[in-house]
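Question (not urgent): is this output format expected?
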Amino acid sequence: LMKRFFHNCLVLPLVVGIFISLLMVEASGSGLEYNVSEEKNVRRKAHIESIKMEEQQMIHNILEDFYFATGGIGWTNNSNWLNQGVKLVDWFGISTYVFGGYEISLSNNNLTGTIPMSLYDFDSLAFLHLSFNPGLTGRISSAIGKLTKLNSIRLSSCAFSGSLPSQLGDLKELDVLDFSANNIIGSMFKGHYTTIDLAKNAITGTIPPDFVSKSIKYIDLSFNHITGSIPQTFLSDAPIVHTVDLSKNKISGQIPHEFLSKSTVMNIIDLSQNELTGLIPANFLQSVSSLFAIQLFHNELSGSINKSFLSSLTFLKIIDLSQNALSGSLPLEFLQDLLTIESIKIIDLSYNEFSGMLPVEFVEFCHKKLCMKDVIFRFDSNETSSHIGIPNALRKDIIPSSMAYRLARAPLTHFVAVNLFIVKLLMS
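Got this back:
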């Protein structure tokens, strides 16, 4: 009995006390762990805020350099620039991109000077749009390769010179490359672009076979000094390309049979004012039913026109094959297709070597359109072979018509070629 009493009075309370102590230690340890975890979160947040502040200060410094390097005090609009009291996105021309990154959009804003090297450290820059600032000069540095988030660069109608750095082709996020109307020299290189505009520069060399990817939509290399032939695989696997302008260069050779063979949304093809030779491929326009304009004028193309040349085109507004060496009679199917295209505005087959008679219904169609002032139709100076005849019944009615519809034996004194400006005007 004494033993049981001893156990209940002394041992049992001791055991319970030890158990309670252990529970208290465990609870204290859990609280300590919670406090440590909370402290880590606070430190992490503070570190992130510190990084953001440092990044904002770095961007501020870069933009400040840019401001002074490009004559910011003389800009047309420099609202809030260098104002420490407002957010960067409230500076004129500065905004954030919806998927992250910044945009500098200061086109037509009287920027002068050169792009400072510090701008190439702006690693969160996604859009750089500085077009129509003719006072911007200098070269584009190879350091532009550090702008890995760059999605669009539009620097057209400025005064940049030198060759473009090949590092531009390594920027995998770069969709839009526009350096048109500058003083750029050098050759071309492969890129991942969907839009490329290098028109009105002094680009030389040949077109690389892998110059563009299958995601290309718009390409304008006009008014340069590009030589060589169009690569056999160039744009042969470009299903969404809608505009191709290679005009006013020195491109030679034949038009490849696979050129644009997979394009289904093509609007404008302009290969004019080059040195292209040979036949127009029979399947050249078979897949481009949405075509608005085809311009092949001022080349050295020869042979006859395929009867199915226009068979798939229902929205065509301009066809200009003038100033070539095309010959033979015009296929009846070709002329009938022209009759069915209600959107047609310009038909120019002048300065070739066509021969034969025009069907009466086609002449009547042209006469009707001319009387409505709805079409420009030229057939003049097809005189190497026998002249295209006009049915006698219509001769007296057509000869006095518009100067645009001339079938004169002598060359025109004044000839104005239809250009892409007119194409865009008619498309608007």
